[in-house]
Design goal:
The protein is α/β, with parallel strands linked by helices. The protein has 2 domains: 19-307, 3-Layer(aba) Sandwich (Alkaline Phosphatase, subunit A); 321-403, Immunoglobulin-like, CATH 2.60.40.10. 33% of the residues lie in helices and 23% in strands. The chain has 15 helices and 14 strands. It has helices at 2-13, 35-41, 44-50, 74-83, 87-90, 107-112, 128-134, 167-186, 198-206, 210-237, 263-266, 278-281, 290-298, 304-307, 356-359, and strands spanning 23-30, 54-59, 120-124, 148-150, 191-196, 240-246, 267-272, 321-329, 332-339, 345-351, 365-371, 376-380, 386-392, 397-403. The protein has a 7-stranded mixed β-sheet with strand order 2-7-6-1-5-3-4, with helices on both faces. A 4-stranded antiparallel β-sheet has the order 11-10-13-14, with no helix packed on it. The protein has a 3-stranded antiparallel β-sheet with strand order 8-9-12, with no helix packed on it. Helix 3 (44-50) runs parallel beside helix 10, helix 8 (167-186) packs parallel to helix 10 (210-237) and helix 9 packs antiparallel against helix 10 (210-237). The N and C termini lie far apart (73 Å). Bound molecules: zinc ion. Residues 31-32, 74, 200, 248-249 line the site of zinc ion (ZN).
């Protein structure tokens, strides 16, 4: 009887509303699974999620050999997802001694800066994700709060005692995935992040082979729990969900290691349940695209200064411009880009300092506005030899640093 009453209460709490469907999103990072492993195993959860959307390649590591080259290390990747920026901005270079630059807003910060209430949740096998990367409660994040928290298992050795093969980490993932599924089913936070850890540990231990395969498939089952909860909400509560599943880096040859810039370490993947744009289909999606994709889906508005520092572009919906480059020719900087919407007006901005990373503000100067089809813009390089450029079009922004 009690169960029936509870079921009725849950159903009543999420009766479909008339009008626009409430939008909700969840990003799942499952640690360190090479794309070729996902494809060889055809991990059912990921291809189920992709049925109405897409499964495709993505990359981490920034741009090789330039100012944005980024270590293919776990926390570095998580923070690229959170902030939509590479390491030269978010400043997390490894898994310890982390000093994130909170001026580059995380998705949690963006959610809380909206002029409407947005409920957030974190379900995570690694507590540092909340306390350090997201920076919950810190003055630098404006005292940011997360509404629903399920983590701390890695700090609770009584409940999760150390096991052989680090299988206590698998236990955290089991707990995290169960808590995430139950919370999404019952509370449906507007934006949530799930982090699962063990596949990376298994691979560090054994490299490519049957053990990793077994635990990648088990991680798939954990993801299925969450996907089932999302489907429950969509079916019973009239909500529209964005689900993004990805990994934080690939793996070096043999599968044990990662951190460098080899093709297999940079290669990641994304599974999503929503229709993707041409750029994703062309295989150009990156870890830094997840933040702008969530922002677009959730209709989050960003302050100009936060927006123009983001290194990613949405992989859903329209883009006006892509593939920005900056070259030097004598004392001129030559900006180039590709036009997707030829008629879109492109505003070209320059900043001659990099104050944003210290104080969170920048003096951006509008140099001019040209149609996207122009595809290039020239300006003088300042005497200091350093400047930042941002291209602002109606549907997306791009930016580059220039340094001599
Ligand atoms: Zn990792």
């Amino acid at each position: 009887m009690k169960r029936i009453i509870l079921a009725l209460a849950v159903a009543a709490a999420c009766l479909p509303l008339s009008g626009a469907k409430p939008k909700k999103s969840v990003v799942i990072i499952v640690d360190g699974i090479a794309k070729d492993v996902v494809e060889r195993l055809h991990v059912p959860a990921l291809y189920d999620i992709a049925r109405s959307g897409s499964f495709g390649p993505s990359y981490v590591g920034g741009e090789v050999g330039t100012y944005s080259q980024t270590p293919t290390i776990s926390a570095v990747g998580y923070n690229s997802m959170l902030t939509g920026t590479w390491v030269n901005k978010h400043n997390v270079y490894g898994n310890s001694n982390m000093q994130p630059d909170y001026h580059y807003w995380s998705l949690f910060r963006i959610a809380k800066e909206q002029d409407r209430p947005v409920r957030t949740a974190i379900y995570s096998s690694w507590t540092d994700n909340r306390t350090i990367l997201v920076g919950e409660g810190k003055p630098e994040t404006g005292g940011l709060q997360i509404d629903i928290v399920h983590d701390g298992y890695d700090l609770d050795q009584e409940r999760f005692p150390k096991k052989e093969k680090d299988l206590h980490i698998f236990d955290y993932d089991e707990e995290v995935s169960r808590q995430a599924a139950a919370s999404i089913r019952e509370e449906a936070p507007d934006f949530s992040w799930v982090y699962l850890w063990y596949p990376d540990d298994a691979a560090h231990r054994y490299g490519d082979g049957t053990y990793v395969d077994e635990y990648v498939l088990k991680a798939g089952k954990q993801i299925s729990r969450i996907w089932e909860a999302v489907q429950y909400r969509e079916k019973n509560c009239g909500e529209e969900w964005l689900v993004i599943v990805t990994t934080d880096h690939g793996r070096r040859f043999l599968g044990h290691k990662h951190g460098g810039q080899s093709a297999r370490e940079r290669q990641t993947w994304i599974a999503t349940n929503v229709k993707v744009n041409r750029r994703f289909k062309d295989g150009k999606a990156a870890m830094v695209d997840i933040n702008p994709t969530v922002c677009r889906f959730m209709e989050f508005r960003l302050p100009f200064e936060v927006q123009v520092e983001q290194d990613g572009v949405p992989f859903i919906g329209r883009l006006d411009i892509t593939d920005m480059t900056v070259e030097r020719y004598d004392k001129k900087a030559i900006l180039r880009w590709k036009a997707v919407d030829k008629k879109a007006p492109v505003q070209v901005y320059m900043a001659t300092a990099n104050n944003y990373r210290e104080i969170g503000h920048e003096e951006w100067v509008l140099l001019g506005t040209v149609p996207a089809s122009t595809g290039h813009f020239e300006t003088d390089i300042p005497d200091s030899g350093f400047c930042k450029f941002a291209l602002v079009a109606p549907d997306n922004t791009l930016n580059r640093w220039f340094s001599e």
